[in-house]
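One-letter codes give the sequence; the fold follows as tokens. An example follows:
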Amino acid sequence: MGIEKPPEDFLYCLPPTIHGFDFTTKTWKTLDVDRITEVTWNKRAFSQLVAPPETKELIQAVVSAHGERKNMGLDIIEGKGQGLLVLLHGGPGTGKTLTAESIAEEQERPLYRVTCGDIGTEPREVERYLGDVLEIGRAWGCVVLLDEADVFLEERSFSDQKRNAIISIFLRILEYYDGILILTTNRIGSFDEAFKSRIQLALGYPTLNEEDRLKIWSNFVQMLPRTKDRVDMEDLQMNLPKLARDEINGREIRNIITMARHLAKFRKETLRYQHMRDALRSSQKFSEYLNQVKGVSDDDWARADKLR
């Protein structure tokens, strides 16, 4: 039959479903063949990433060269040192996870995201689960994201032998993984030195400044016309500098916009700056209360505890 289109009658001989892997639930599911379409990659994601141009260029360079580097044979032992291990460290909502997502979109690769909660706490359980994840990542050319990987990166101690075993297993598995693995952490101060030589690219994500926040607000607001909401774009864009003055992170900005949309719908009004302001004020009250209870902000606490 070759590449010719099969007769319509022949299609009735084929099964209407096929098995596929869901990267969100991490389970195999039965899919309707008629509803399968080509993946639409978001090529704008990387360009909208808020990071210094030199940092973005470096990311693109090492990721693009990964396929070529696998064939360079720079390690004495065959099969070792051919993976790309990237460490992204910084506070919450500074763009670490978004960077991993943008890399996957830019490279047209599926993103396989796992957390320490998925992997477990028993050494044998960790070894089996990590092995399965990385095998899928290798087979399908995924960008594997190990989000909030603090338990694996934390410095070992004599008092916790179980965690030491988990870290040792992780280090051994990394030696022979030849795909792209991205780790994120907001506790770089407790970093185990054994990982230093295994990481090809380490990038720090500082607290967002006003210019960064303005870009993030602008990126989110520009996406609003794609929704079915009634939006006063002129009012929002005119007041973006006011919104950017408040010291919040990217995830909080996204949450505030979501709350503002709900608020506008509930009031049966066109979404505008006042809805953003009301949602922001509510979020600020909660943040101020947490700071009063703790006595310091999250960044000050992490700095005092030498975590980042």
Remarks:
- The mean pLDDT is 87.
